[in-house]
């Protein structure tokens, strides 16, 4: 991954969200800007929103499950796990809120939230997609699958 390009995109994208949300917003803006030239981008945009919402829900469910598992085993690191679970839950709720606001926004109104079209071009959009895909659980555990 080209971390320099990711950092450049993050600098150009305004917003106080976390890094993932900023990249998601940049990608959604790019897809929304180019829907007139390629109709399949409308589907891609909806697919990404649905997939990110599902991932956030799964992350929340895993955090709750791990907290219940820790409660039953009563480990010594219980306080740290609860804090981490709370942070995961807070981050998940903020991401869900962000995605819900994007879903409720119709494309004609989305123009008010758009950044400059210079910010993300096709190559940057491809880089963002690869970066966000690398953050998914399957991509992170790919080495484990290969060794098995």
TrEMBL record:
InterPro entries referenced in this protein's UniProt entry, alphabetically: Scc2/Nipped-B (IPR033031)
Molecular function via GO: chromatin binding; cohesin loader activity
GO cellular component: Scc2-Scc4 cohesin loading complex
Stretches for region Disordered: 61-84
GO biological process: brain development; chromatin looping; digestive tract development; embryonic viscerocranium morphogenesis; establishment of mitotic sister chromatid cohesion; establishment of protein localization to chromatin; heart morphogenesis; regulation of gene expression
Listed Basic and acidic residues bias regions: 61-83
PANTHER family recorded: NIPPED-B-LIKE PROTEIN, NIPPED-B-LIKE PROTEIN DELANGIN SCC2-RELATED
Protein name: NIPBL protein
Provenance organism: Pampusana beccarii
